[in-house]
Amino acid sequence: MHLQSFGAACTVTGSMHLLTLGGRRVLVDCGLFQGGDELEARNREAFSFDVAELDAVILTHAHLDHVGRLPLLVRRGYRGAVYCTPPTAALAETVLLDSARLQVEGYKQDLRRARRQGREDEVPPPLYEEEDVHRALALLRPSLEFGETASVAGVRVTPGRAGHILGSAYLLLESGGERLLMSGDLGNRESGLQLDFTPPPEADAAVIETTYANRTHRSWEATLAEFAQALRASVRQGGKILIPTFAIERAQVILATLKDLMDSGEVPRIPIFLDSPMAARATGEYFEYGDELRADVRDELRAGEDPFRPNTLHVVPTSAESQRINRYDGPAIIMAGNGMMTGGRIQHHLKHHLWKPSTSLIVVSYQSPASLGGRIVGGAGHVRLMGEEVAVRAQVHTIGGFSAHADQDDLLAFLDTAGRPHVWLVHGEPEVMAGFVPLLAARGLKGDLVPDRQPVDLLGGGYADGRPPGLVLDRSPAESLQAEAGE
Ligand SMILES: [Zn+2]
Predict the structure, then answer these.
(1) Where is region (Disordered) located (predicted)?
(2) Could you tell me the distance, in angstroms and rounded to a whole number, from the CA of residue 165 to the centre of ligand 1?
């Protein structure tokens, strides 16, 4: 039972895990690297395995960092099946079409700039285009159902509810009597929309995500109070309230929360612009699969109500209308993508408002340290936005509790029922993972970091201190904990 990770190994994005079990080669997730030029350059690298020799692909969920390189895999020759749950297939269509559009738009923009410099030959083509996405979508087999064992290229696969976003699954893979758990992304058990993850069965090895393995999220109640307070303070400032929002899950959670807070009078009713056609489309899928959601939301939907539509909501379809929001006077909430502020419509809103002290920036999503959002949250005085230097004078509020990711307690609780697996850590910053290894040891579990691109024997001995040779940590696990606590 071997694993070779081509993404999300000692980093958070780009999930792509090649498993070899029982002589079969199964790729779990095929995600895009996101968050900074250095990481994103890796999206262009050749796959270091023979694409045509894969027996199957399984997607745990539809986030771009888990599905975003699928069209590239197909462009480079993959013709086999791609298994996932039905909601994941529906959301993947929205996510991948948007990604292709961004690839092509980015390419055209780079080309225009390069032409002026006489360097058009140096611009790389888009990673993929819409037709690649349609070929990838044609390979989707939305046949995985929670709790039901399926045969995927001869490997027994049982998906479990991961509680992270709509349709998200963890996987139990069984072959030759060996059992492997792949967590995918696990949910925060205090989520506004998703049901909790179901306890996993026992396994010999577990590959688990560790995005927030070093922190404990605020309770849902405290998060709501914090969000309401930030909103009230921002309304008093009188400026625009920018909420950079990932289109899937976070947008729906924020819409539902704003509706509750405005309906109950805790927050004044001010206009809300949902400046993300992709978030609007994804919200349609949350309707379609409403039975998957928490009981209160499901019941509202069944009663014909719309939990995602505050009274003052305006959905902004075109970029021309998006530009017009800047001429709107008075306080208003602007929700726009992308969540890490590295692209999308949020950028022109930031350019227009980030330098004004009356603006509030409410950060409700994970920010990779190298991303624009990470730099703003980290206290940068100036940032570069659309080719211009912009001062950061807005009030920045960071609300961590909306996370769709498991925190330390959730991760340990997930492992509670899994027996005594050898735990392999992925999807986290190296310092965070290194700090989690001793917590696993205290529970009698061996924990190891999955090295980038190096093959590992999942049932082998692992490493002496849990760290693959050659791994250099930027800060010690203790420093990492302090930094997180000080946020
Ligand atoms: Zn995810």
Answers:
(1) 465-487
(2) 7
Q: How far is CA 448 from CA 130, 235, 408, 460, 475, in A?
A: 39, 47, 16, 11, 18
Q: What is the tens place of the pLDDT at every residue in 305-327?
A: 999 999 999 999 898 999 999 88
Tell me how far the alpha carbon of residue 116 is from its chain's centroid: 36
Interval between CA 424 and ligand 1 midpoint (Å) = 18
> What is the layout of strands, in order, in the sheet containing 272-275?
313-315, 272-275, 332-336, 240-244, 360-363, 395-398
- pLDDT tens track for 249-281: 999 999 999 999 999 999 999 999 999 999 999
CA of 464 to the centre of ligand 1 (A): 30
- Identify the structural domains of the chain with CATH numbers, from first to last: 2-215+404-485 (3.60.15.10), 220-402 (3.40.50.10890)
Q: How far is the CA of 92 from the centre of ligand 1 (A)?
A: 12
Which pTM value belongs to this model?
Answer: 0.91
Q: How far, in Å, from the CA of 358 to the mean position of ligand 1?
A: 33
The tokens describing 277, both together, are: 């056609």
